[in-house]
Design brief:
three-stranded antiparallel beta sheet, 263 residues, elongated, binds zinc ion, five-stranded mixed beta barrel, alpha/beta
Length: 263
């Protein structure tokens, strides 16, 4: 969720809800240390909320935490990956547009991160699933030009067409990044066999970097903008040399948390 100070006492909070999708609400008094609502509106908290109609934004009148997801606020790696998921949902969905499938995916993925399941696998699974749910499923099996089955060889991925070109059709693209055989295999494993199979794979660092760069670049193409959360996490955890240390001091601006709206 993003939390924006409205005035001395109140906050505007961005929720992600099953019935209304991304949903901005006012939480009165939530900035006061004694607030009854405040603890239920922490980043990444899964909560059930009562709302009242407001003039522009609806107002939170009651809240109950279902899962606090404490690890997501205390462990830097879990926090970085949860922030990324929230950022993806925030950027790729519209305000007050119902998307229960994305909601359930986000709830499940945050819960897995909170249970300390491998953040790399959980996050790649989330990304592939969210792309599919929102209509950007990458074609992982056939050449997007001629339709032939892709062979086990490095192939270029054309983001604007959402798929790979085979060696015969490769000349139709310039500058599309090549994806290694193992990176393509990992994506197909996720797609065919799900997260359970992916967490059992041994993924060396180089392959992790390649897959993260691939999904980041495709998401950037889909959203037409950059995603910051994983970059901030790398800047903080990978040590000096990649970007200025101050980058780690400012958390990403917007993080929706799953929440229940009325009804
Ligand atoms: Zn082809």
């Amino acid at each position: 969720m993003s939390r924006m100070a409205l005035n001395e006492a109140d906050r505007i909070v961005t929720l992600f809800t099953p019935a209304y999708g991304k949903y901005r609400v006012i939480a009165k008094g939530a900035r006061r240390p004694t607030s009854r609502l405040g603890p239920h509106l922490e980043y990444f908290t899964h909560a059930r909320l009562q709302m009242a109609r407001g003039r522009e934004l609806d107002v939170v009148t009651g809240a109950e935490t279902l899962r606090p997801h404490m690890l997501l606020r205390t462990d830097l790696t879990a926090f970085g990956h949860a922030s990324h998921m929230a950022e993806v949902v925030l950027r790729l969905t519209e305000e007050r547009q119902e998307n229960a499938a994305v909601y359930h995916l986000l709830v499940k993925s945050l819960a897995l991160l909170d249970e300390a399941v491998d953040p790399f696998a959980v996050t790649r699974h989330f990304e592939l699933a969210v792309m599919t749910l929102l209509g950007y499923r990458p074609e992982l099996y056939r050449c997007i030009e001629c339709g032939r089955d892709l062979e086990a060889e490095p192939n270029p991925f054309v983001a604007s067409r959402g798929g790979f070109l085979c060696p015969v059709c490769r000349h139709r693209t310039t500058g599309s990044p090549m994806l290694s055989i193992n990176a393509q295999k990992y994506l197909r494993t996720l797609d065919r066999h799900g997260l359970g199979a992916a967490v059992r794979l041994r993924v060396p660092d180089g392959l992790r970097d390649e897959l993260e760069a691939f999904t980041s670049s495709y998401l950037r193409h889909i959203a037409e903008r950059d995603f910051h959360s994983l970059r901030v996490w790398h800047a903080v955890t990978d040590g000096p040399g990649t970007s200025p240390p101050s980058a780690g001091a400012s958390p990403p601006a917007d993080r929706p948390a799953p929440g229940h709206a009325p009804g």
